[in-house]
Amino acid sequence: MRGACRRMIFASSILFAAALMARPAYSQVDLSGEWSQPPAPDNTMDPYIGDYAGLPINDAARLRADSWTAEKWTQEEHECEPHPADYAPRSPGGMRIWPDLDPLTQEITAWHTTVYWMGAQRTIYMDNRPHPPDYAAYTWAGFSTGKWEGDKLRVTTTHLKEGWLRRNGLPRADKATLTEFFIRHGDFLTLVSIVKDPVYLTEPLVRTEHFVLNLGYALSPSSCIPRHEIDHPRGWVAHHLPGTNEWLTEFATKYGIPVEATRGGAETMYPEYQLKLATLPMPPKPKESPGRTK
Amino acid sequence: MVVVLAAVEGGICAQQILNDKEPAVHVLHVQGRVYMLVGAGANITVQVGDRAVLVVDAGVPQMSEQVLSAIRTLSQAPIAFIVDTSMDEDHIGGNQNVAKAGHFNLGLPGEATGASVIAHLKALDRMSAPTGKKPPVAEDLWPTDTYDNDKWELFNDEAVIIEHPHAAHTDGDSTVFFRRSDVVSAGDIFTPEHYPVIEAQRGGTINGEIEALNQVIDIMVPKEGEEGGTYVIPGHGRLCDRAEIVNYRDMVTIVRDRIEDMVKKGMTLEQVKAAKPTLDYDGIYGADTGPWTTKMFIEAVYRDLSQSKR
Ligand SMILES: [Zn+2]
Questions:
Q1: Which CATH superfamily, name and number, covers B2-243?
Q2: pLDDT at position A89, please?
Q3: ipTM of the complex, rounded to two decimals
Q4: Which of residues 98-117 of B touch A (CB under 8 A)?
Q5: Any CB–CB contact under 8 A between B10 and chain A?
Q6: The whole model's pTM is what?
């Protein structure tokens, strides 16, 4: 009797182990490690005022960006804002990715990422938890959940604080959602990000970012504590009144691009736009470069 | 139904469905002793002391039963104080029901029990009417205790600082700061899902509104990375931190500056409306229908600034 019982326990433990071994791998691809980042494929590093080309924006986004001024960063409350999750991987400096493991099942319950700029961290929950209700607080990282689709990790993010599409004032609303695909090919990682913004975009904005595995690569520490730098009257808010921003055509003039094309819009994303571009009037040549040395 | 969420960072950590009566009042733990109740009209703030509960705004009367059972999931201590952030119906409608269920133990022997209902004196002035005339708000909903200067300080296991912004959403607004919990309840001076309601007929002004937002921002300190730290519970809409009320203040200030510039240029109201001074924000805060439309907001700002120009 005792022997039979022991055998049964032995048999059931083999079954339990077999059941564990037969489970699908806890992730199809291991994303963990340090990834360095070649220069971004589009002009995100140092964008010009008024360069909206190639972005599917609407008039609301244009007015918001036309009113924007970099003096915004002299408002103490804005000084230390990190990049939101949809923009953060576009900053130079690489990314570290690491998992949380369930100690019992060894399943990955979450992925974490951090990027150089302000050390912005994200968590991507892999445990099928629901997204919070809409009355919960929004964050720069948003609330992200992930699911493997074949060898691609699909990440869905909601609850994003208002952010930016480009660092020249083009806004991204807090009503936007972000879908991403993390795709690893050996030592290369491609991050596809799709922003849907019902307030400022007429079509989804699809962008990619590339990373190269660089194990042991250390992200430089980055932190920020706001401090009073420039005197402003109490409650002062940086902006240009409509029609008064004299820098809006600087980009078009410097590079000899029709101003209309620099105003962006969905049509400027597509190759057919080159035909129209050839018919648009060119801006006058600049006498000298207006205040920029690049 | 009452749904309790312990959630700010990291999303939903616990979700407990306590009963299944619809519609629902949702409870969100903000931090420390402070909770936010959603679904009963205006947002309700509940601060739980060891011996007493303090409530900011009481919501609509139809939801009082659900509000009280939500509060009872947090504490069995008596509700001692209700603070009204304005005289709006969806904030004070539940005053009587919630106060009746409470108890303020400083009353004289023989006095009817019930929570102390606190508001600024100007809010009471707007609710009441000279003797013999019908008041705009039923007497049962009036505050029992008022303050007539800029500040009233209480203690309910932490400092509770009630402040009166002048002439913002109305001229009887109050904000409530829970100092140890590090949460401000802002009432309708801050509504992150629509333009601020400037009730000119009740003493509200655009410049007072901006000043009120700046006063709240002044007491907020974020954690590193401009996130969390002090939280602000708006009159309506989601829980926010400083970055979000700052964006809102920026928006209101920019719209004010634009309309002020148009007023200075002598533009008529129709011309201002046609110039769409809020175009870039309408997708976030605007409305074509409902109690507070984009047109009403533009009109309120225009009339206020044109009057002060004269
Ligand atoms: Zn309200």
A1: Ribonuclease Z/Hydroxyacylglutathione hydrolase-like (3.60.15.10)
A2: 87
A3: 0.90
A4: none
A5: yes
A6: 0.90
